[in-house]
Amino acid sequence: MVMRPVPWQTGEICGPDSAKSLTKAAQLKRDLGKMKKPLLIVGSEAVNMEHGKGDMIDYAIALSEAGKIPVVATGGAIKSFIEKGFEGAKSMGAMELAFYLQDETWKGPHEKGPHDMVLVYGIPYYMQWTMLSGIMNFGTHLRRITLGRYYQPHADWSIPNMKEKQWHALLDEILEFVGGGK
Amino acid sequence: MKKKAHFKADEARTGLGVFKGLEVRIGQVIDDEWDEPMGPTPMPGPTGLRSWDHKLLSKYHPSYMPYCQVCCLCTFGKCDLSGDKRGACGIDMKGQQARIVLAAANIGNAAHLAHARHLVEHLIEEHGPRTELIQGPGTEIHAPVSRLVTGMRPKTLEDASIILDYCESQLAHTLSATHTGQEGSWLDFESKVLHVGMIDQVSMEIADLVQISTMDFPQADPEAPLVDSGIGMMDTSKAIILAIGHNIVPAASITDYITEKKLGAKVEVGGMCCTAWDMTRRDPNAKVIGPISWQLRYIRSGKADVIVVDEQCIRTDVVTEAQKVKAPVISTCDKAVMGLPDRSDDSIDSIVEELVSGKIPGAYIPDHHKVGAVATKVALAVMPKRRKMKFFPTKKQIQKMAQECKKCSECIRSCPNNQPVMEAVLAAQTGNFEPLRDVYRNCIGCARCESACPNDYDLHSWMVVAAEEDCRNETFKVRTGRGAIQDTEIRSVGQPIVFGEIPGVIAHVGCANYPSGGADIYEMAEEFAKRRYIILTSGCAAVSAGHVRDENGQSIYERRGGEFDAGCVVNVGSCVSNPHIAGAAIKIAAIFAKRNLRGNYAEIADYIHNRVGAVGISWGAMSQKAASIASGFWRLGVPVIVGPHGSKYRRMLLGKAEEERAWTVYDARTGERVVTAPGPEHLFYAAETVDEANVMTAKLCIRPNDTGKGRSIKLSHYIDIHEKAYGFFPEDVWKYIRRETDIPITLKDKIHAQMKENKWKERTIPDPTLLKEMVMGGGK
Q: Scanning every residue of chain B, which has its alpha carbon at the shortest distance from the alpha carbon of A102?
C-alpha cells in the first residue's frame, strides 16, 4: 500500500505544482481560519463509502453542520442527502462545478459565495483529478482541499493515500477541528 | 457544381486496355442535372464557417481541465504554462489546451479519412471509377452530409474521391494549425476543432457510402438481419478466424473465400470492434464477438486460431498476446503492420506453410486477395492441434499462485476504474473466485493491472477463468447496421421531432471505456426507448446495447424495431456509419422544412440546433476518433454527453443557464431578439453517473422551437427522470415555461408555485435562429 503523496492512479501525474500532504487536522488551521466561504463538494461514490456507523454522506452532513459549510452533491449523490432528511445540499454536475468555480464572482448554488475554498471527496478519482486541474489552473482564487483517501495532486492539501483506518481517524479529527463530532 | 478534379492510378484496367501511371486532371465536373441552388459555403476552408462557430462558442464556453501544466511539443520547452505564464512561443494555457483538443480531433479525422481513402482506392481498382454510389431505397437525399458541406452529391466512386481530396486538404490545414508558431487563439483553435469535426463527418459518410454501394451491405434497411453476438456464440468445433479493427476489405476477403470454397461448416469468422459490424453487414453468417475491450479476453482464451487485424482500435501488443496462445497474426493494413514480415509478394502456399509451422509469428499481407485464402487455410491447419492446448491456468493453479500476492495495491492503482483487483486475488487464495468474477464484469480489458503486478500475474486471464460461465452465456442476437435512414421515415417523424412530440433522438455511439460495464448502455437506451424517444446506436456502443437479455431472453434489438421511429432501436452500423445519424437530422431540415442543403451548412446547423432534439451519448468514449466524431456533432449544434472517463478529453463546452444573453435568438418572423430557455444547456458534457447522464439527456433534448405540447412532453420526462434519480423536483422547470401550454398538466400546481416564486413572465415562442440573415427579408 502506497503511503506517499503520489497520485493514486499511477498515470495521473501532473505538472510543476502539486498538493501538500494532509495528515493532521491542525495543518488546515490557517486555511480554515483565513477562508470564510468554503464549499463542500460530495460525489456519487460517497454514498457507498462507509465511515463510522454511517457513510460518507453522514460525514458530509456532520461536517456541514459543524462548520456551517454549504454542500453541493454531484452525480446524483443528492438523493442520499434527501433520504437522510438533510436539506442543506444542492445538486450540480462535477463538470459544471469545475467551470463555475473558475468564476471568482460566482455565488454558488446556495447564493452564499463567492467561495474562497472547496473541500472535495467522493467523485471518481480521475474525474476529481481533472475537475481540480480546471480549478487549479483557472480558479486560482480558491483553496482546494481533498478529503478522499487518495492523493489528489491538484489540491493545495490532499490526504496522501492512507490506510482506511488511519483515514477515518483523520476525518474524525478534521470534523472535531471544525467543531463537530462531539 | 464546378470542381476541379484530379485522378491518379498506378494501374487502371479499362475497356480500352490497361493503363500504367495514369493521371487525369479535369478542370471542371459539372452536375448539370441538379437544380438545387448552390448555398453560400461549398467546400469551406478552415475559416469559412468561423462566424457560425463563434456563435456556438459564445454560447458554449470551453472549460479546460489541463492534463499537465507544461507544453512539451517543441524544443523551446518544456514550457511551464502554470498561472498566467506563457510558453517560449507565446502560447498561454488556454491556447495550449485548445491546441491539444485540435490535435486529438485531427488524429481522429486522419484515421477515418485514411480509412475512407483506402476504401475508395480499393473499390475504384475493383469496380472502376464510374461505379454508382447507392445509399438504398427511399434515400433520394443521398449523402446529406457531403452535399451540405461540399455542395456535391457523390454519384460515383470518382465523385467520392474528389470529395476526399477536399477533406484531405482541410485536414492538412487544421493539422498545420497545431504547429508551433501558428494559431494562437483558443477561440480559433476551437473553431478549427469544429471544422475538422465537420470534415470527419464527410470522410466517414464517404467511407460508409462506398462500402454500402459495392459490398452488399443492407441499404437503408430497417430490417437488417439479426446476427449472433457474444463469446458464447462462437462455435469452437470449427476453426475460428478473429478479425479486429474497422476496415471491411480484408475481412470480406475471408468471408468471400469461405463462401466460395463452401467451408462454412468448417470455419467460423467472428469480429471485434467495427470490423465485426461491417462483416455481418456483408455476411450475416459472420459473428460479432464483442466490443473493442473484449480483444484480450478472447485472444487469451486461445479460441481464435488466426487473428487478422486491419486498422484502428487494435491492441498494439496483439502479436505478443497471440504468440502466447500460438495463434498466427495477419496484419493487412499499412497503418498497423505490427512489426511483421512483409509477405505480400510470396505465394499463398508458402505464407501458409510459414505460419502453420510457426516459423514466423505472423505476416503482413496488404494484398487483400490473398488474405482470405491464407487466413482460412492456416486456421484449418492449426485448429486440430490448438484445440488440444490449454491456455488458461486452472482455478487450482490460480489459487496457488495467488498465495504469493505482495499486497502492494499496484493492480488497483493501475486500474482505470479502481477495481478491487487485489482484494479479488486475496479472495482467490481461499478458493473464492466470485470477487474476480465481479471485477471481470466491470473490466475494460486494458490489462494495466498485469503490467503493474510485481509478480507478473496474468490477472486479466484469472478474471476470465473466474467468469468462465459468464463468457459461455454471452449469447445474444444483435441487429446489424442498416446504414442510412430513409426519406420516407423522416417524412413520418420529422414533424413530431421538430415540434417536440417525439421527445428526442438519442444516439449511443463510440468506444467501450465504460466506468462500470457495458450494461449501462443497455440501461440508458431502454430507459429512453420505453419513453418513446428514437434510439440510434453505432460502433462498440451498439454491441454493448445488445449484450443484455430481458426476462424473456431477448436483446433490445429483438424486442424493438429497427425503424427510425419512436421507441425503436436503430443500429446504423460501424464508426463510419455515424454520419447517417447526422444525416437524419440534416434530412429533417430538407424534408420537413424544405431547406436547401447544398453548400448551406450554417443555415442547416442553425435549424438542427434550434429545432431537432437530438443528443449524442458516448458513454465509453476513449479514442481520438470519438473526439472528432463528437466535434462533427457540435458544429451541427447537437450536444454530446460522455461518461466520466470523457472528462479526460480535458475540455467541456458548457452553457451558463443564467446568462440571458446567451439564450437570445432572433425571431425569424419579426427580426426581434427573443430570450429563450437555456436549451440545449451544454454542448459537451461528461456525466459522473448513469443517473446524471439520464437527467442531462432528457434536459438536453429541449429546443427553442418546441411547440407547447412538445415542450410539455419533454418536461414531463425531464421531471420524472430527475425525481427518480435525484429524489426531488427539479428547480429549473420554470425557466422552460414560455406559456401555460408548456406546463405538463399533471404537474401544474408544483410548476405554478415555482413560476410564482421566480416571478415568471410569459414569453413568445419564436421562429428561432441565431443567424440574422435568416430573418424574413434577410434581416436588414
A: B63
Put simply, whether A43 touches B (Cβ < 8 Å) is yes
Residues B612 and B729 reside in one and the same domain? yes
Phi, psi of B127 (to 5 degrees): -115, -15
The ranges assigned to domains in chain A are 20-177
> Based on the domain organization, do B452 and B527 belong to the same domain?
no
Secondary structure (DSSP) of B184-251: --HHHHHHHHHHHHHHHHHHHHHHHHHHHHHTT---S-TTPPEEEESGGGS-TTSEEEEEESS-HHHH
- Residues of chain B contacting residue A13, judged by C-beta atoms under 8 Å apart: 68
> Which CATH number does A20-177 carry?
3.40.50.1220
Q: Which residues share a beta bridge with B577?
A: none
Q: Do A95 and B654 touch (CB under 8 A)?
A: yes
Q: Which residues of A touch B80 (CB under 8 A)?
A: 15-16
pLDDT digits (tens, 9 = 90+) for B416-458: 999 999 999 999 999 999 999 999 999 999 999 999 999 999 9
Which among B85, B654, B688, B718 is the top mutation candidate for probing chain A, defined by the most A β-carbons within 10 Å of its own β-carbon?
B688
Answer whether A93 sits within 8 Å of B644, measured CB to CB. no
Q: Does B643 touch chain A (CB under 8 A)?
A: no
Give CA–CA dist B396/B429, Å, rounded: 9
For residues B748-758, average pLDDT: 97
Please answer yes or no on whether B418 and A127 come within 8 Å at the CB atom: no
Q: Are residues B230 and B319 in the same domain?
A: yes
B400 and B292 in a common domain: no
> What is the spatial distance between Cα A43 and Cα A121, in angstroms, rounded to a whole number?
6
B371-411: per-residue pLDDT in tens? Answer: 999 999 999 999 999 999 999 999 999 999 999 999 999 99
Is B63–A102 a contact, with Cβ atoms under 8 angstroms apart?
yes
> Which of B59, B60, B61, B63 is best to mutate for the A interface (most A CBs within 10 A)?
B63
| Whether residue B356 sits in one domain with residue B450 | no
Distance of alpha carbon B498 from alpha carbon B705, whole angstroms: 7
Residues B635 and B738 in one domain: yes
Higher pLDDT, A11 or B605: B605
Interface predicted TM-score (ipTM): 0.97
- Write out chain B residues lying below 8 Å of A75, CB-based: 687-689, 691-692
Q: Do A93 and B692 touch (CB under 8 A)?
A: yes
Which is more confidently placed, B741 or B7? B741
- pLDDT, position B608: 98
Mutate one of A130, A133, A149 to test the B interface: name it (highest B CB count within 10 A): A130
User: Do residues B158 and B234 touch, judged by C-beta distance below 8 A?
Assistant: no
- Which residue of A lies nearest to B72 if distances are taken between CA atoms? A15
State which residues of chain A have pLDDT below 50: none
- Split at pLDDT 50, 70, 90, the class of B77 is confident
**Mean residue pLDDT across chain B:** 95
Cβ B211 vs Cβ B239: under 8 Å: no
As a whole number of angstroms, the distance between CA B439 and CA A48 comes to 17
Interface contact B414-A10, CB threshold 8 A: yes
pLDDT given at position B203: 98
Chain centroid to CA B570: how far?
Answer: 14
Q: How far apart are CA B562 and CA B550, in angstroms?
A: 18
Contacts of B648 in chain A (CB under 8 A): 126, 130
- pTM score over 0.90: yes
Percent of chain B with pLDDT over 90: 93
pLDDT tens digits for A126-152? 999 999 999 999 999 999 999 999 999
Radius of gyration of chain A (CA): 15
User: Which pLDDT belongs to residue B435?
Assistant: 98
Distances (CA, A) of B476 to B213, B218, B243, B268, B707: 28, 20, 19, 17, 40
